[in-house]
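Lab notebook, bench 4. The sequencing result for the construct came back, and we need a structural model before the next group meeting so we can plan mutations. Quick request posted to the team channel:

Model the 3D structure of this chain.
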Amino acid sequence: MPILKLLKNFSKKIFFVKIEGLSCFPEILPEKIYLVLDIKPKIGDFIVFKDEREIFVKKLKKIKDNFLILEDSFKKEYKIEREKVLGKIVLKIT
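Done. Here's the predicted structure in token form:
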């Protein structure tokens, strides 16, 4: 998706994440840096969210009311509240 189109939908957050681990491999690669924007996610997007202590990236599988169902590359599912979402990955930087 072109950056200009993404920026048109931009709300307030823009940041970068450096990936550690293999939970979204091979689509999201460890040791790489990705651009994250606070824009509405779609099924199949990689979502960045904050748990009590850490920040995670998982793939969006379903949207249910105020919850998102995410999964990793091992097909483990996670149910999180929408309020925990920081944004979605939109571009690999390095």
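The first helix runs from residue 3 to 8.
Will bring this to the meeting.
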